């Protein structure tokens, strides 16, 4: 029996674009899935292997528990055998509310609170009282948020407009809401007069309410007649209803909406810690708990190791491994107080990895989605050692990755392809790196690094002066206009602080970040690019039918599935089952909608056209302009009706870029555009950037990818380290000039050139 090979067996995989794929995946190895964007990597790894493993794990729980857990539908496959429990580490932002920090996410904060409650001086009491979530621990002035939020009158009100013209810019208090309607009909204020023309006393009443000791009656008119009510003032009302209460329970408004018309400043009582000043008096070796939270992680390690009190030392020893794991992941520049929501995709993923590294479980399948994302080439080796460590603990490591350094250390490579979308979904190679030939990845491994030896002439600059956002050390820099600029440097060196904060505060830019674009199953390529209405209008004009008939969100929807295309029968405790709607065959449309045609195609056949095909089909200049943008960023293989929720990370990034391509004379700011892109896709995107610059735009990218950096006209490197060791400009110049520099990026650029010369 010992001769039996332990491997994951997958047969007949058909999720998304997979074409009946068969795979045997060896266990206790590092398996790298690669291939161009949209080739089917995620369909195998996430939508099939991970989903089925999770589904089977939940089957071990009693029915009443399973009903409360996430429920997974069985993937489309003939056979899935020998799966082991999975730990999935994706690039999605780590969950949690606005108060979630690195310390809370890593479960280090409870240990630090326990430490202070046991050995802090003067003693306070229980560990819970060191939290801004507790009634004693929270700052009485800011409620534990660390910031004082007040309505900003100039953001909230446009004094040049009347109430009817939406002078109040906050939707619930505008004419579209009942409160705005009340302001216009209560008789106290002229709804058609600009606020600037109100008498001083009336304006004061409107903004601040009646003066002390006075009352202002303002009847609220309903269909049943007037109701007595009192006017309390716009700013007091806004503060009471939207700042001094938990608005998460309100459906029509979010915290972001409130902050958009507010100003927030550091709380003067707790200095941003969110803690009661009495809590801050308690110290260990001269530091209070807020100061502990602000320390960079290596400094925190030093403080924890200084503790000699027997009880304190035992608690510190429990926290030290967690902190060490974060430092080992190259995140030493973070602090426990760093908000999880402010981390880049790559940083968030490494925090997740560090959280799992402490596990002593084995025979687990670890799945990583591009773990090299956000890593400087200098930091990738650290990642590789971590993957090997997990494997050595008798685990299987499956990685979706384009970084060639990671591909090279794989025990086995599985390349999907040959193309993307409908042209992908097949295994084009499985085996060791030595046998990889004539595939996109094989070509990428042999591709030469092309140094731009003829950079564009620089004539003008964007000036940034004394930038001190986050870790920036009063940075002065001139960033060239109308060329391709790469800003590089190790993680935490200040790239995002310089560009996404200091730069955008002064120069409005078209920013294409790492965030998603929504996950609605009803959002398609055509709707995202703003041409769905035009397509419906064309069919409507040709057939004489209303445009709504050609929408599955309107009265063109199939009456049985209501435009979803699928039915999910209620199956009580069993796993969910999604079946295609028999009435419409999964098309989402009613028979009547499908009976009308334009240029010999009905609405479904039109939405089944690929971007490439639609260029020959449509004559509308607007539609042709938009679909050509998609073709320009290499998405010609996708269909007009493809849902945006089904796109890969690389496809999403290019779709976001395509939606902005019509602009000229603009500043394009891109945060790691290489994310999720195979080397073959990188070349396509580089061509797009060069075209943008040739049209008179400025393109500035935050990037680690050496192909992008080498092709730039100008390079700016931040550093020399991360966190407090960063925040400075350590290089400015052309790619050729960087070959003579002594920075970390220069080291890898030289290394890439040397390999080309061998």
List keywords for this structure.
758 residues, alpha/beta, Rossmann fold, ABC transporter ATPase like fold, Helicase, Ruva Protein, domain 3, six-stranded mixed sheet, 29 helices, 25 strands, 15% strand
Task: Summarize the structure in words.
The chain is α/β, with parallel strands linked by helices. It has 5 domains: 7-94 and 339-446, Rossmann fold, CATH 3.40.50.300; 102-146 and 269-329, ABC transporter ATPase like fold (Up-down Bundle); 148-266, Helicase, Ruva Protein, domain 3, CATH 1.10.8; 451-517 and 650-757, P-loop containing nucleotide triphosphate hydrolases (Rossmann fold, 3-Layer(aba) Sandwich), CATH 3.40.50.300; 519-646, ABC transporter ATPase  like domain (ABC transporter ATPase like fold), CATH 1.20.1580.10. It is built from 29 helices and 25 strands. The strands form 8 sheets. Strands 5-12-13-3-14-15 form a 6-stranded mixed β-sheet, sandwiched between helices. Strands 19-22-23-18-24-25 form a 6-stranded mixed β-sheet, sandwiched between helices. A hairpin with an 8-residue loop joins strand 24 and strand 25. Helix 23 runs antiparallel to helix 24 (621-632). It is globular and about 85 Å long. The model has no long low-confidence stretch (mean pLDDT 88).
């Amino acid at each position: 029996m010992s001769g039996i090979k332990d491997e994951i067996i997958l047969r007949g995989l058909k999720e998304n674009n997979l074409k009946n794929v068969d795979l045997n995946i060896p266990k206790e190895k590092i398996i790298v899935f690669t291939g161009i964007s949209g080739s089917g990597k995620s369909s195998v790894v996430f939508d099939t292997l991970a989903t089925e493993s999770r589904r089977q794990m939940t089957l071990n729980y009693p029915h009443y528990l399973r009903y409360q857990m996430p429920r997974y539908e069985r993937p489309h496959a003939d056979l899935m055998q020998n799966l082991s429990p999975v730990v999935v580490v994706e690039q999605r932002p780590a969950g949690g509310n606005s108060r979630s920090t690195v310390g809370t996410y890593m479960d280090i904060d409870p240990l630090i609170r326990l430490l202070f409650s046991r050995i802090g001086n003067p003693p306070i009491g229980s560990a819970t009282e060191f939290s801004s979530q507790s009634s004693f621990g929270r700052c009485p002035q800011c409620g534990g948020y660390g910031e004082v939020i007040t309505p900003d009158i100039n953001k909230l009100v446009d004094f040049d407009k009347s109430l009817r013209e939406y002078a109040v810019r906050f939707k619930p208090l505008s004419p579209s809401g009942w409160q705005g309607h009340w302001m216009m009909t209560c008789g106290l204020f002229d709804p058609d007069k600009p606020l600037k023309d109100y008498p001083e006393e009336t304006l004061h009443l409107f903004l601040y309410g009646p003066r002390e000791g006075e009352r202002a009656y303002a009847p609220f008119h309903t269909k049943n007649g007037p109701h007595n009510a009192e006017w309390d003032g716009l700013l007091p009302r806004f503060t009471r209803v939207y700042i001094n209460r938990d608005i998460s329970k309100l459906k029509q408004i979010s915290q972001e909406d409130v902050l958009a018309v507010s100003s927030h400043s550091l709380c003067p009582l707790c200095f941003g810690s969110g803690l009661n000043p009495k809590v801050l008096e308690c110290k260990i070796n001269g530091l209070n708990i807020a100061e502990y939270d602000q320390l960079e992680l290596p400094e925190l390690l030093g403080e924890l190791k200084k503790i000699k009190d027997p009880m304190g030392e035992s608690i510190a020893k429990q926290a030290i491994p967690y902190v060490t794991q974060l430092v080992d992941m190259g995140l030493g520049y973070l602090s426990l107080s760093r908000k999880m929501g402010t981390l880049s995709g790559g940083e968030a993923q490494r925090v997740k990895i560090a959280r799992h590294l402490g596990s002593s479980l084995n025979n687990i399948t670890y799945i990583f989605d591009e773990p090299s994302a956000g890593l400087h080439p200098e930091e990738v080796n650290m990642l590789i050692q971590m993957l090997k460590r997990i494997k050595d603990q008798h685990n299987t490591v499956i990685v979706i990755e384009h970084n060639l350094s990671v591909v090279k250390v794989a025990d086995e490579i599985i390349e999907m392809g040959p193309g993307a979308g409908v042209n992908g979904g097949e295994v084009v190679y499985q085996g060791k790196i030595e046998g990889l030939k004539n595939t996109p990845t094989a070509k990428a491994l042999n591709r030469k690094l092309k140094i731009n030896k003829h950079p564009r002439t620089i004539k003008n600059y964007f000036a940034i002066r004394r930038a001190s956002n986050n870790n920036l050390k009063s940075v002065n820099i001139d960033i060239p206009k109308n060329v391709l600029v790469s800003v590089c440097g190790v993680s935490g060196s200040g790239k995002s602080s310089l560009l996404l904060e200091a730069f955008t505060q002064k120069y409005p830019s078209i920013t294409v970040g790492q965030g998603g674009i929504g996950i609605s199953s009803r959002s398609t390529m055509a709707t995202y690019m703003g041409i769905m209405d035009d397509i419906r209008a064309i069919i409507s004009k040709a057939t004489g039918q209303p445009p709504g008939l050609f929408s599955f969100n309107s009265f063109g929807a199939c009456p049985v599935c209501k435009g979803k295309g699928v039915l999910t029968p209620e199956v009580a405790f069993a796993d969910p089952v999604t079946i295609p709607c028999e009435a419409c065959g999964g098309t989402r449309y009613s028979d009547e909608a499908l009976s009308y045609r334009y240029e010999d195609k009905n609405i479904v056949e039109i939405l089944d056209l690929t971007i490439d095909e639609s260029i020959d089909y449509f004559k509308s200049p607007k539609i042709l302009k938009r679909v050509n943008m998609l073709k320009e960023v290499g998405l010609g293989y996708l269909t007009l009706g493809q849902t945006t929720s089904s796109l890969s990370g690389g496809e999403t990034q290019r779709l976001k870029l395509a939606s902005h391509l019509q602009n000229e004379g603009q500043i394009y700011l891109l945060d790691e555009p290489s994310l999720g892109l195979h080397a073959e896709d990188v070349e396509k995107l580089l061509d797009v950037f060069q075209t943008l610059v040739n049209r008179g735009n400025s393109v500035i990218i935050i990037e680690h990818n050496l192909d992008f950096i080498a092709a730039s006209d100008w390079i700016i490197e931040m550093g020399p380290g991360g966190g407090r060791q960063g925040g400075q400009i350590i290089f400015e110049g052309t790619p050729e000039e960087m070959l003579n520099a002594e920075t970390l990026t220069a080291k890898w650029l030289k290394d890439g050139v040397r390999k080309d010369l061998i």
